[in-house]
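User: structure tokens for this one?
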Amino acid sequence: MKITFLSDNLQKKLPFLNHAVSSRGQLPILSNFLLDVKKGKLTISATDLEIGISSSIPVNVEKEGSVTLPAKNFSDLLANIGSQKLTLFLEGETLRLTGEKIKASFQTIPSDDFPNLYEEKGEELISIKKSQVEEFISRVVFAAAFDSSKPALSGVLLDKDKNEVLFVATDGYRLSMQKNVFKTKEELAKPLVIPSRVIREILSISEESDELRVFISEKNNQVLFSQGETILVGRLIEGEYPDYQKIIPADFNTKTEVKRDELLNAIKICSVFARETANIIKLTIGKDRMIVSANSPSVGEDSVEISAKTIGEENEIAFNAKYVLDLLSSLDKDDLVFEMTGPLNPGVFKIKEDNTFLHLIMPIRVQG
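Assistant:
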């Protein structure tokens, strides 16, 4: 193997590729990058067996070939050598890198030992704009469980309702649902649960192309995302997803409109006191105002009044402040609607004049 290329092209790719490098050290090969040179391209791959990432750059090829080398050392070196023309070539089991006033060598492991990221892409399910993904997925993925005895809760559900694709995430205490008018290229035979880690990684892909293509391989139980010269692969989660439709309230007796930035600021202020009492904050809803408050017997109490426009009954409800902050921080729309039916029933947040999104939070029972 022997190639020459511009360091800039590779430096842009390595930070994202490092997301898939294993840090556990159980299998040395998983701490390596796979370098594969073929048809004028250098493709670098990484996997920790949970996710896999590959990305390509154009190179001048003198000799094709493939090899693996330590990912961290290679990345750290490339990050510090600036912009220059580099040459990579293999001598026996040593990969040598040369550039302007720089020489380095890496011990390698044969590429045959590196796991395949995927055998086939599968059927293309959706092709969507990356900008749309960033907006919609960020509203949902944070609600998935980080660690759960029910594996399905650690994923994001991809479901279909008539002509709409739904993204749903829940950890049992909150639920986010985003409907999208995306037409699928293939029929969604059954709901799919994609690991939330894979969904989060989509947001980190940095490519000039704005088209994100989604492939499903039922044979290998994998989902594959392709954007430009980068591919992200993950394994679908097996297991039954909760019937999320059952917990979404069909009606409400209190509906209030608030500004996101005002509510966010009020929650942050009250969180200072809520920290001492299991992070509990209370929302007291009046006709033209909402009062956000927190009470800690050992510290004190505070409250913040914000303007609101309420239809229906005056009401109050308590939440975990972190859940509300997570939601408000994920939205980029300022006009919100909050609906509830009582202090012991879920509260539902929506975006005003947008029927494609909702976020549900389970309340906390408080005394008094």
